[in-house]
């Protein structure tokens, strides 16, 4: 079982790199901003609370995960922050994690196909915590930024 856990963490971390690479190429397409910038598949605050997004937010802010993407961090609240740039970085992170989630899901399906169900469950749980939840957190943060954009960028429509 320990090897299942180790492999699950390894493939999920590898999926972050795969997600960043695919996001890089997707950004070169014309429809990236149109299709992905406002992508939301879980908009309910109640559901976000029920599934524990608050815990993931706390974990990202208060553990070593806070060092993984410094572009998503407001370094000094007293300085002016470009919300559009921050929102763009969040979109990159969100899409990268979603691509990573799909990447690992392929391995999960292969484990189900080979009837290795325990391995599949461990891999999917790791995938949910390390890919799906961060993506949902970025969607939540983007919605918060969208509320502030009319104040700081009056000519911007999201």
Task: Walk me through this protein's architecture.
The chain is an all-alpha fold and 158 residues long. The chain has 6 helices and no strands. It has helices spanning 2-27, 32-36, 45-51, 53-62, 83-113, 117-152. Helix 1 crosses helix 5 and helix 5 (83-113) packs antiparallel against helix 6 (117-152). The longest helix has 36 residues, at 117-152. The chain is globular, with a radius of gyration of 17 Å. It starts with a helix and ends in a 6-residue tail after the last helix. The model has no long low-confidence stretch (mean pLDDT 87).
| Helix/strand order, N-terminal first | HHHHHH
Portion in beta strands: under 5%
Low-confidence runs (pLDDT<50, min 5 residues)? none
From the spread of the alpha carbons, the general shape counts as: globular
- State Rg: 17 Å
Structural class: mainly alpha
The profile of the biggest β sheet is: none
Helix content: over 70%
Total number of beta strands: 0
Could you tell me how far the N terminus lies from the C terminus, measured between alpha carbons in angstroms? 46 Å
> What is the tally of helical segments?
6
Mean pLDDT: 87
């Amino acid at each position: 079982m320990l090897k299942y856990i180790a492999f699950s963490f390894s493939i999920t971390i590898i999926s972050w790199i795969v997600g960043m690479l695919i996001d890089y190429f997707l950004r070169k397409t014309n429809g990236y901003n149109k299709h992905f910038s406002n992508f939301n598949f879980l908009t309910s605050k109640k559901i976000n609370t029920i599934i524990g997004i608050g815990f993931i937010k706390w974990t990202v802010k208060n553990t070593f995960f806070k060092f993984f993407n410094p572009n998503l961090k407001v370094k000094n609240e007293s300085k002016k922050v470009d919300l559009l740039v921050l929102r763009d970085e969040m979109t990159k992170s969100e899409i990268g994690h979603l691509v990573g989630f799909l990447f690992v899901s392929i391995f999960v399906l292969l484990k189900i196909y080979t009837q290795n169900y325990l391995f599949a469950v461990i891999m999917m749980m790791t995938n949910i915590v390390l890919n799906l939840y961060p993506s949902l957190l970025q969607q939540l943060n983007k919605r918060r930024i969208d509320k502030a954009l009319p104040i700081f960028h009056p000519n911007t429509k999201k």
